[in-house]
């Protein structure tokens, strides 16, 4: 009897989730599965060893959340259009255009088809976001720590694909280094160290990307995970900044973010499964940050 009741409640609970959330879940899942199939079909997983197996997931962890965010440009078009700066014309057009790019570019990243071009354009897009929106927001509110956190997050979202694009150039293949990869490393290292500082100061807030919400009481350990992330960010962020064992440092940061996603944001996503703003977006946002760091790790192949 109880089993029948559970079977009956399952589809009811699913139908209670708004279609806007279901679309984001669905697109995320499709891109994630395509990425998994690609790395196994190409033999990348079989040939990778140790942390290199984790680094393979960098483009997937970045692309699948980005595709889900791109979907929101079609399901929440008016809300997305409202954040376009007022002086830029055709707000609805840009919402649809960027949403389309945020779905097509992730498919390119996970399938490796024109990945360099897609990564380059994504880097440019996020750097424009910093220049046009997040940077000015922080300048206007310099004492708002969350304005700084959001600006650095967008900077990292641009640095990850910048590093990936650099790793796909002939110069990187010949020498193992590239000036753009070095720039991306500085961007992410600075972000990680600032995030470490913020997490040490505010252990009651969610870890990974230290945003405004407090860690819910139902997350086992609560503040422990914020301090774990703070320590890992500090220990790995310093060598990443000074250029020592950069590949391993970035990989360990990425692993830390993945742990936070599973332990902290997983339960949040389950409890808030019917919400984008309070549930799905948080786990996607943090996973995408981890993907950006892992893409940087992949571009640090020949650095020591």
Describe this structure in words.
The protein has 304 residues and is mostly helical. The protein has one domain. Helices cover 78% and strands 0% of the residues. The chain contains 14 helices and no strands. The N and C termini lie far apart (62 Å).
Gap from first CA to last CA: 62 Å
The parts where pLDDT drops under 50 for at least 5 residues are none
What's the domain count? 1
Please provide the count of β strands. 0
**Gyration radius, in Å:** 19 Å
Given the structure, what is the number of helices? Answer: 14
Query: Which word captures the global form?
Result: globular
Note the main sheet.
Answer: none
> SS-based structural class?
mainly alpha
Order of helices and strands: HHHHHHHHHHHHHH
Mean pLDDT: 90
As a percent range, the share of strand residues is: under 5%
Into which percent range does the helicity of residues fall? Answer: over 70%
Give a short overview:
By secondary structure, the protein is mainly alpha-helical.
What is the secondary structure topology, with strand pairs?
Layout: H1 2-15, H2 19-41, H3 44-47, H4 51-55, H5 58-75, H6 77-81, H7 91-111, H8 115-140, H9 145-167, H10 170-175, H11 179-201, H12 223-242, H13 246-271, H14 276-298
Keywords:
304 residues, mainly alpha, 14 helices
